Amino acid sequence: MTSQLFAICFNATRPSDLARFWSGVLGWAVADGPDDDVAVLPPDAAGFRIRFLPSQEPKIGQNRAHFDLTSTSPADQQQTVARALEFGGKHIDVGQLPEERHVVLADPDGNEFCVIEAGNKFLADTGFIGALACDGTQEVGYFWSEALRWPLVWDQDQETAIQSPNGGTKITWGGPPVAPKTGTNRLYFELALPADADWEAEVDRLISLGARRTDIGEGDGVRVLMLDPDGNEFSVRRPR
């Protein structure tokens, strides 16, 4: 049985503060987790949660993934930016051009995200979190399409994107050039299986698609840490 995207996880120096920020920006409820983590929960039960787990590793360079938030109007875009700044975000410069209409910000832990202008056709009907935009190869886009069984909704010039059959947030990969990976990613996917699923069989399936299993993070017996074809960490929770 196929894994489902359970959560987007952030390794955070201040999990509670970061959860309050994203709860304030997104309007999602906060909930305590079982691993000294804090999560914000989507309004739709079919969506993924965002988990913030304690970590003291410093941020090195730009993250390999960031959220793109959508806007319904110029005023709505301005309100989202103002709300983010009110909750502790800040403007940052990542090389965006003056004529570009999206706004680049960072959360209180330095994680980049964008507030996209209204009228963006690619993100139409995706919801407030329009995309998780990732730095990655075409191969890794194909891998995640097969891993989650989400169809490809974009595959051109080595850029790929997938989306759940139920709609919602797209996950995109920008293609080459892909920046070298430095250290552990701050953002990573957490997959989960239904209670009656064969966990080992699913891990084997992911390996057959191009993932690698590591020995890190398996001590609690709750999850296994794996690497996708681009070397990005992700975890697979055991059924409970």
UniProtKB/TrEMBL annotation:
Gene3D superfamilies: 2,3-Dihydroxybiphenyl 1,2-Dioxygenase, domain 1
Domain of life assignment: Bacteria
Pfam families from the UniProt entry: Glyoxalase_6
Xref: InterPro entries: Glyas_Bleomycin-R_OHBP_Dase, Glyoxalase_6, VOC_core
Domain VOC: from-to ranges: 4-118, 125-239
Membrane-spanning intervals of the chain: none
Protein name: VOC family protein
Organism: Streptomyces lonegramiae
